[in-house]
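Notebook entry, structure prediction.
Reason for the run: the old model in the group folder had no record of what sequence produced it. Starting over properly, with the input documented here first.
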Amino acid sequence: MPARYVFTETWDIPADPETVRDLLVDVEHYPQWWPQVRAVAKLSDDGALLVCRSTLPYDLEIVLHAVTRDLPTLEVGLGGDLDGFARWTLTPAPRGSRTVFEQEVVVGGLLGLASIALRPVLSWNHHQMMLGCRNGLSSRAAEPR
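New structure, fully documented this time:
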């Protein structure tokens, strides 16, 4: 039984949109600053496989396919354990960049079935993953280049 999830996050990151974009499109280096991204395998110039684990003890295998890497909007199609898209919109802000993250996915299989009873827990788990992203991205973006 598939389950649909929609997530939105808005953060200010202490770097210009170009710097933030460069970090976000450099998927192969996510494990260096995003603790919940455990492994990345490049599949093509526009595709990668990510293995992610947040707080709950299960791994998600997510296939990314780049749709656009041009500011202000970065977008990837998602496949594997999740089907849908993730989008970042990056705009200048007084102290760096305003980042808006949007994700819409359908989850099938056992995770979709678990969503019937565990939706609040699974949403919390996603929030923990994105907290790791925000903290890691902010730290990495603030490093001298």
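Summary: The first strand starts at residue 3 and ends at 13.
The old model has been moved to the deprecated folder.
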